């Protein structure tokens, strides 16, 4: 065989064996989601809740679905109480959670994604009292002797944490088991103010109790919100891929679009409360048609 022909055949054989090998390595690499991922959530509208058909709905649910779709992953949403979901995340029986604030305690058992949205803690009054209660800073609660309603579960910012004992000593602190009960107590005149998430508090008040709240000026806390991935069932590589999805969908405007849609939905629900429906009906009525419109 002529030398030139031999050299050509040698190069051809190298190409035949080399390029398929490169392709095979890519296909053999572990996929981001080798199986459907389980994501825990509890009822916290408008971020997450279970509708009448047992399907997860809400702002955080839609955002996680978008991240998963970008990565080619399937998500199974599991409705579970908050405390139990953290235990399941620790053991690896749950892969992910949404809407999480990063803490040192949680970092012991979870990987935190890049932040994908923000959350504010605000003070609210009944709409009919918005002109009679003026508050520009936290200390006005003490100077004006305003009674504050606080759901027992949640983080409400440094101002509250640092003055909680003083509030109790001056009989200005009224604790309640949850947001629903807090709104009820506010309407019964048990307190002057209520504290909570800037989006969830007025939404739940309007949908569950048919009550309109007005927000006051101070922003008590501003938190970055993350996904939590179980250290037992998820890998650092999977975390990197979810961070990539968050970055891409943030940069192309998809995250902002979804958040804006839910902000508008929340506002619409607060300003148009139907008196012909039960509180439970009000929570879900019309959401299906509004939720997936673009």
Automatic annotation (TrEMBL):
Domain of life of the source: Bacteria
Segment forming the signal sequence: 1-23
Domain (Solute-binding protein family 3/N-terminal): residue spans on this chain: 36-266
SMART domains: PBPb
SUPFAM superfamilies with a match to the protein in the record: Periplasmic binding protein-like II (SSF53850)
Pfam families in UniProt: SBP_bac_3 (PF00497)
Protein family according to the UniProt entry: Belongs to the bacterial solute-binding protein 3 family.
Protein name (database record): Extracellular solute-binding protein
């Amino acid at each position: 065989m002529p030398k030139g022909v031999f050299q050509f055949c040698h190069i051809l054989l190298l190409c035949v064996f080399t390029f398929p090998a490169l392709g095979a390595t890519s296909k053999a690499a572990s996929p981001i989601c080798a199986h459907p991922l389980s994501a825990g959530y509890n009822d916290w509208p408008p971020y997450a809740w279970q509708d009448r058909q047992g399907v997860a709905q809400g702002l955080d649910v839609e955002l996680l679905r978008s991240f998963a779709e970008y990565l080619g992953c399937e998500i199974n949403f599991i409705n579970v109480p908050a405390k139990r979901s953290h235990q399941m995340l620790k053991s690896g029986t749950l892969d992910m959670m949404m809407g999480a604030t990063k803490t040192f305690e949680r970092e012991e058992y979870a990987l935190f994604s890049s932040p994908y949205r923000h959350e504010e803690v605000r003070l609210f009054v009944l709409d009919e009292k918005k002109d009679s209660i003026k508050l520009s800073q936290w200390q006005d609660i003490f100077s004006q002797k305003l009674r504050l309603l606080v759901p027992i579960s949640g983080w409400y910012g440094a101002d509250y944490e640092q003055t909680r004992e003083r509030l109790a000593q001056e009989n200005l602190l009224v604790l309640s088991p949850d947001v629903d009960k807090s709104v009820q107590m506010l309407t019964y005149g048990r307190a002057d103010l209520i504290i909570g998430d800037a989006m969830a508090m007025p939404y739940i008040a309007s949908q569950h109790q048919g009550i309109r709240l007005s927000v006051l000026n101070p922003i008590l806390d501003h938190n970055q919100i993350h996904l939590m991935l179980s250290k037992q069932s998820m890998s650092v590589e999977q975390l990197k891929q979810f961070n990539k999805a968050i970055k891409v969908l943030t940069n192309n405007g998809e995250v902002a679009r979804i958040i804006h849609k839910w902000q508008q939905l929340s506002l619409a629900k607060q300003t148009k409360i139907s008196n012909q429906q039960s509180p439970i009906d009000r929570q879900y009525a019309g959401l299906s048609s509004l939720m997936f419109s673009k």
